[in-house]
Amino acid sequence: QVQLVESGGGLVQAGGSLKLSCAASGTIFSFDVMRWYRQAPGKQRELVAAITGGSRTNYADSVLGRFTISRDNAKNTMYLQMSSLKPEDTGVYYCSRYSPIASRDDWGQGTQVTVSS
Predict the structure, then answer these.
(1) How confident is the model over 32-84, as pLDDT tens digits?
(2) Which carries the bigger pLDDT value, residue 25 or residue 55?
């Protein structure tokens, strides 16, 4: 089992930027799928971005062109660069790792992002 810890959240004005990190205590394998989710108050958790071992990425339409997901397998770390932030980006951001070998998802505890208008 891998433990994931998110960091980098905070309060930012609309139009600003933040970079989130997700550090794993164990080994993230190149074939693991890494994802960022977010959950706004009163809403369901939604997928924001994903990156495969081959560095293929996909994004929610709402963040396409503004967010960039990346990973550094050597550092067992994933990132989410967020730019042109909007108030609707506010929420708790969670990272997850899906292991196809173990067929399981591991989750972090989340980091709060608040975008003020």
Answers:
(1) 999 999 999 999 999 999 999 878 999 999 999 999 999 998 899 999 999 99
(2) 25
Per-residue model confidence (pLDDT) at position 24: 93
The structure tokens listed for 21 are 């990190």
Q: 44: Cβ–Cβ under 8 A, 6 or more apart, which residues?
A: none
Query: Could you tell me if 106 and 1 are in contact, meaning their C-beta atoms sit under 8 angstroms apart?
Result: yes
Q: Report the helix count and the strand count for the chain, using DSSP H and E.
A: 0, 11
Report the candidate in 105, 93, 109, 103 with the shortest Cα–Cα distance to residue 34.
105
Q: Is 93 exposed, middle or buried (0-12, 13-18, 19+ CB in 10 A)?
A: buried
